[in-house]
Design a protein that fits this description.
single chain, alpha/beta, 3 helices, 28% helix, 30% strand
Length: 107
């Protein structure tokens, strides 16, 4: 089972998507990531509020690390909700799309 809570920070023009899964090695569905990528690219959400970024905040580090690369590839931020607040996990995937999809021209 998964849970999701969404908050909007008007000062930072940021949508926070709080996610938790019963199985820590669960991925955020591609369709969900695509939806938030489209919001960031459009610069507005369905309510017309300005959006500069979407931040996924996971309840545990295992789930955050498991989702970090797909979330980063989608152009979104990955954070972990720790006792002292939210901490960034990193936002850059450590793989090359061209190489992963076999379209790198280098011999």
């Amino acid at each position: 089972m998964s849970k999701e809570r969404i908050e909007y920070d008007a000062d930072e023009q940021l949508i926070k998507v709080y996610r938790s899964f019963s199985d820590p090695k669960s991925l955020v569905p591609k369709s969900e990531l695509k939806k938030w990528t489209e919001v960031v690219n459009a610069g507005r959400d369905k309510k017309g509020r300005p959006v500069k970024a979407v931040r996924y905040v996971f309840t545990d580090e295992v789930t955050a690390r498991y989702n970090q690369q797909p979330v980063a590839f989608a152009g979104l931020q990955t954070f972990v909700d720790k006792k002292g607040g939210e901490s960034p996990l990193g936002d850059d995937p450590d793989f090359s799309v061209r190489e992963d999809f076999g379209i790198d021209d280098a011999e």
